[in-house]
Design goal:
With about 150 residues, the protein is an alpha/beta fold. It contains 5 helices and 5 strands.
């Protein structure tokens, strides 16, 4: 399998790269700000770069654990957070779908309000922060829109 991991400099992305490589898959990894050896720099706000990379890699699967996780910063910069946490992954999902690639998005607990838990996939969402709102929109929007185009 050819896999593209967007966000390999994070904890989940780094572990995913290692797990995929250990199983013999071909992995292309990206980072945004923290360089990772062998990874390609990718700004999720640059949709043309996202699409170009996906066309060049022709992955079977696009994994997207990357995104902004600093809640306070996201609340202070909602437009930037939406670009990186919602529009960027949606562009990746669409580009992957155009090539027939699957898309896996990793969400966060911020799609829930924290009033109760543990939460399941079918529990109602109630995002209360700038990270949660875009996170919820990208998890729903990326999945449904990429599937609608395939």
């Amino acid at each position: 399998m050819r896999a593209l991991v967007i966000g390999a400099s994070g904890q989940v992305g780094g572990a995913l790269v290692n797990a995929l490589a250990a199983r013999g898959h071909t992995v292309t990894a990206t980072y945004a700000t923290v360089p990772v050896a062998g990874a390609t720099k990718l700004d999720l706000r640059d949709h043309q770069a996202v699409e170009r990379l996906i066309r060049d890699v022709t992955p079977d699967w696009v994994f997207c654990p990357g995104g902004l996780t600093r809640v306070d910063w996201c609340e202070d910069h909602p437009e930037a957070a939406a670009q990186i946490n919602a529009a960027g992954p949606l562009a990746a999902a669409r580009a992957g779908a155009a090539l027939g690639a699957g898309f896996v998005y990793y969400s966060s607990e911020y799609v829930f309000d924290g009033e109760r838990g543990p939460y399941g996939e079918e529990d109602p969402h109630a995002p209360s922060a700038s990270t949660g709102g875009p996170s919820f929109r990208r998890s729903r929007g990326s999945w449904w829109r990429s599937r609608a185009r395939s």
